Amino acid sequence: MSLRKRVDEVVTVGRPGDKLNRAFGIFIVTLIGLNVVALIAESVRSIHALWPRLFSLFELVSVIIFTVEYVARLWSCVEKPTYHKPVRGRLRFAVTPLAMVDLLAILPFYLPFTGLDLRFLRILRMMRIFRLAKLGRYSQSLQILNRVMTARKEQLLCTLFVLLLLVIIAASLLYYAENHVQPEAFSSIPAAMWWAVSTLTTVGYGDIYPMTTLGKFMASIIAVLGIGMFALPTGILGAGFVEEVGRNQKPAQCPHCGKEIGGAKGTA
After folding, report:
1. Is the separation of the CB atoms in 65 and 32 below 8 Å?
2. pTM for the whole thing?
3. Domain spanning 153-248: CATH 1.20.1250.20
4. What is the CATH number that goes with domain 3-133?
5. pLDDT at residue 171 tops 80
6. Looking at beta carbons, which pairs linking 215-220 to residues 24 or more positions away fall under 8 Å?
7. What does the pLDDT look like over 133-158, one tens digit per residue?
8. Which of the pair, 227 or 72, is modelled with greater confidence?
């Protein structure tokens, strides 16, 4: 086996039972988790003031490790049939979502003049933890979720369209009802969409609210409609999960004869 092939197996998904691949995955996920903790702790000034050099050193070490990992992935990706071409294959791999996140998470360190701090993108890299979940528990759950989303995509898209339509209608109604009273809060229909979204989702921040009688009346109806409309996706997904779990569930068997229980109807 070539070195590049082995590197590809280690940094991505290797053979079942590959201890080095699993150890590398656990190490990277742990380092990402520590980066997330460090990022959160560093935002507290009192904590950052205690160990400024420690935070800087940890950031330097993390960037070096992540850079080596990114280069190793980019170098070894040509071992996969999808990216087998030396130049075009690597470019194609580099624009994949996870590869872009990897690059953006380390790029500001090498380009300090940009003034951007994209370390929070390392949180997204926590999604790599699912690559370690070969135990079957997470993978089965993700497969069920994927099947449910695929089976119910038409209903979900229809619900999303209705919700979008309701937001536009709600924003338009409140714009015409409140614009002459609150020209700044309801300056346009797009501006009124913030109120429509916060009302339909039952959040209701209270920063924008109707003052006219007509506006309050319409807002009350819209708020009630929002409760039912935003419950639709939950019901669709819930029904899909119940159906999928029931389909995969094995029928109960009699402990004595081994026959399926519940197959016969009308038994005394």
Report:
1. no
2. 0.54
3. no
4. 1.20.120.350
5. yes
6. 215/174, 215/177, 215/178, 215/181, 218/170, 218/173, 218/174, 218/177, 219/174
7. 433 344 566 677 778 888 888 888 88
8. 72
Tokens of 194: 């913030």
DSSP the chain: --HHHHHHHHHS--STT-HHHHHHHHHHHHHHHHHHHHHHHHTSHHHHHH-HHHHHHHHHHHHHHHHHHHHHHHHHGGGSGGG-STTHHHHHHHTSHHHHHHHHHHHHHH-GGG----GGGGGGGGGGGGGG-TTSHHHHHHHHHHHHHHHTHHHHHHHHHHHHHHHHHHHHHHHHHHTTT-TTTTSSHHHHHHHHHHHHTT---SSS---SHHHHHHHHHHHHHHHHHTTHHHHHHHHHHHHHHHHHSPPPB-TTT-PBTT-S-S--
CA torsion angle for 163, 167, 173, 176 (degrees, to 10)? -160
- Which residue type sits at 55? F
Does pLDDT of 57 surpass 90? yes
Task: Write out the residue limits of the CATH 1.10.287.70 domain(s) in the chain.
Answer: 153-248
| Residue linked to tokens 């997470």 | 138
Task: Tell me the range of 85-89, 108-112, 144-148 where mean pLDDT is highest.
Answer: 85-89
Contact predicate 73/11, CB 8 Å: yes
6 Cβ contact partners less than 8 Å away, ≥ 6 residues apart:
none
Residue 32: CB atoms within 10 A of its CB come to 21
As annotated, the residues of the chain forming the CATH 1.20.120.350 domain(s) are: 3-133
Amino acid at 227: I
